[in-house]
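WARN no homologs supplied; continuing
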Amino acid sequence: MASSKRNRTPRPSLAPPRKRVPQARASAPQPPGVSVADLLLTQRELAEAISLAIEKGRSLDAMSYGCLRVFLDRTGAHRGVVYLEDEQTREMHVLATCGDVLGKDATRVLEPIVARVMREGRGQATADCLAAPLRRRGRAVEGVIAIHGLPADKARIQKIAGLLDFFVSRLAEAVDHVRLIEKYDQKIQRIRHLGGISEALNAEGREEETLRYAIEAAITLVHAEAGSLLLTDEETKDLFFRMAVGPKADQLKEIRLKLGQGIAGLVAQSGKPLLVNNAQRDPRVAHEVDLRTGFVTRTLIAAPIVAHGDILGVLEAVNKTGGRPFSKWDVDEFVCLSHQVALALEKARLLREHSEKIGRLQKLQEVSGVLNSSLNPADIRKQAIEAATVVMNAETGSLLLLDEAAQELYFDVALGEKGEGVRQIRLKVGQGIAGAVAKTQEPVIINDCYADPRFNKEADKKSGFHTRNMVCVPVKAKDKLLGVLQAINKKDGTHFTQEDLHDFISLANQVGIAIENANLYEEINRLLEGFINASVLAIESRDPTTSGHSGRVATLCCGLAEMVDRLDSGPYKDVTFNYEQMKEMRYAAVLHDFGKVGVREHVLVKADKLFPGDLAQLKARFAFIKRTFEAKSWQKKVDILMSGDRKATAELLAQVDEELARQIAETDGILEFLLVCNKPTVLAQGGFERLSDIAKMTYDSYQGSQSYLTPTEAVTLSIPKGSLTNEERLEIESHVTHTFRFLSTIPWTKTLKSIPDIAYGHHEKLDGSGYPRHTPGNVIPVQTRIMTISDIYDALTASDRPYKTAVPTPKALAILEDEVKHGKVDSHLFQVFVDSKVYQRAHAPSK
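OK structure emitted
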């Protein structure tokens, strides 16, 4: 019955309880005797418990606890402990405990017998304790099962010992099996983890994020509390903390380790990983780092980061969690991770270099655009220095140009606060570093200028600037030396590199081309300016009375355009004039009257209504008329004397003299009137009628009766205003068309192509009453409207001319205002002209 009842006992759970309250077993009923049947049943239950635990994938501690529970229940022993050796550290730890009054005291009681089992490799027994070694087949002892609180019956103890041997052998096999499974699972998990790390490290992302992820992945992989990445300084070969994660991480930034100093220094020196599980007693550890940070290093793994045979740095993991030591497996996996980090760093380096190269190329491209954006030599030289400092990441720079005649270099541009201090310095070719480069025409890098015997300290003394390092390259165009370009003092205290030199050479080549182009452009401009000046001289030599008119109109035009460019309200607030547009307007203004070369000179300089020859002919005609009157008077006197009437002779002769005097006076009066009519003034009332009467008068000539005035003279002297006939006025007005045709034959550049059109309309009016095309205001460009105001003002206020007197400024402005009122001149531009007093730029106003 007892056996059947035992068979009906439910199988105990293998899972450890959430909370087990130890209870004394003194009051518990004693278990029945351990019979052979009981042993077999217990063995079967133990085997089933182990198989079930393996089947359900339970952990070693859960499985061990369940088996101990079965063992104690079936044998009546008070307590049991399973010890297991760590495969990596070889340290013993309690895997599972079961029974009464368990704790540190109980396990401490068992420690001596457990130690003997581990030392001797066989089971041990005391009065109330049994301990058996846990070993897999053919291997050393890996653990111990100790049973404490045995019954006093020796026979029962022997049976329990046999059951313990069975328990140990089966549990050893189970431990082996579970460990294999756990190892497999751990390997799979770590492989997956390493795969994820590899994928993350090789993903596109910022270097800072990648490095932080690498450190976090490293400490997660080996279950560490903190970690760091130390990189090798290429120049000093010291190790510096590039990235750190964990407590006191921020305090590591300023710390550097020499090669061979500390665990990291030794790893960097040897290229081999190191494992330290007792850092406080290891003399190789850099304890000064802990002293500076206040961090306590207990355990440590350090692995080298190697790429292409070069040690880039060291990866560290510090303090295994739970106070445990790092294992060899941790080291192996950490080394694998360090390889991944090395690849990531190498990739980041290549990407950084690639990015820097692209950045440099972009900078050079941008600089090329800047250098080609202007053809002003001074602007280009200044932009060249600014570009040099940007491309080279330098504090300052200078451009020295070559004085070919003196064979000297002079500072054309020098940036920075001390730049002005070196402007007066001149270097002979061969003197100083710049002179040496000019002589050899070979670029150089000097990373310690004061250690170079070629360095000329005079510039530093005069400027107060301290030159640490520099790159100096020749500036050439078509193999002709133009000067020397310098970039001085690399920022952040670093050195210039060969890549810097290559970039600087490329920049110098662009600068040379830009300077040469600017010089050529300047020569072309001087040529064009010379041509324009010669053209103006030709115009003024044809009409000296208008000398200076074209230049003054250009001054007024540019002044008014400058004011318009500043407007922020009104219809012209969006109108702007850049440098090229201002030059275009100036050229158009200077050349606006060039077409006068196509007008006959005598018409162009005609001061009076009659040409000088025609006036001389008129005067000669009136002299002849007077001679005719005198001849007739003498004939009358002869006839009177021949008549013989002496008494009447004297009286008749007197009458003849009186008549002659009257005719002479009348003729002189007519001539005087005609001379007044010849002036370009408005005739007085009745003047046109008198001219008509004079034209009808005749005198006797050798060809018979002739008129006092020819039809042409009568028409010319009847000109109501000015000195030109309609035909002559049209000829004068044709100068605008001649100007347009002449200017249109010149192959202007794109920036100057509008010059003919601007000049063509300077006599047009907004109401269409101007000439020669009668263009309405909506199609007249603003430049032409500006020129119209400027041209009218100067024509009115210019010095006295033969055909007009100078008009005072107030009257000239009043005349222009009247033109505005009649819709002929732009009112807004005229208002700017007056408000800004642009008119004062031309000349002092007449009084």
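The longest strand covers residues 310-320.
OK
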